[in-house]
Automatic annotation (TrEMBL):
Protein name per its UniProtKB record: P-II family nitrogen regulator
Chain coiled-coil ranges: none
A GO biological process held by the record: regulation of nitrogen utilization
Domain of life from the UniProt record: Bacteria
One example GO MF annotation: ATP binding
């Protein structure tokens, strides 16, 4: 199993979710509103004040899928979140050792 986390521009969220919804077998997604900054280090709101930064709003999408579906999901996110401008985001793919469904105690791929 793979966990896919994608940090994307908020204005691209509807487009990405619409594309993901078309993938057969997709078990579901989690979306969070987040904020932060990338390589640019963030901008200070006021150069005179120390430690106060203007963070950039983003959306985080999290999905756990079977290994064979991971590349399809990654490609869909990449294609639909891409604008070509700085700040388009990142996609992270990690291995999932186990999943436990709290309600039923199902484990592994049955829990997804």
């Amino acid at each position: 199993m793979k966990e896919i986390k994608a940090i994307i521009q908020p204005f691209m969220l509807t487009r990405v979710v619409t594309a993901l919804h078309k993938i057969e077998g997709l078990p579901g997604i989690t979306i969070s509103d987040i904020k932060g900054f990338g390589k640019g280090g963030g901008k200070k709101e006021n150069d005179d004040e120390e430690g106060i930064y203007d963070f950039v709003p983003k959306n985080k999408i999290e999905i756990v899928v079977q290994d064979e579906l991971a590349e399809t999901v990654v490609n869909s996110i990449q294609e639909n979140a891409h604008t070509g401008n700085p700040g388009d985001g990142k996609i992270f793919v990690t291995d999932v050792v186990n999943v436990v469904k709290i309600r039923t105690n199902e484990r592994g791929k049955e829990a997804i």
